[in-house]
Amino acid sequence: MPRPAPPQDPPIYRALMRAWADRGRTLPGRHDPEWVRLSAPPVRPGQFSASVDPLGDVR
Question: What is the reported pLDDT for 25?
Answer without folding.
Answer: 84
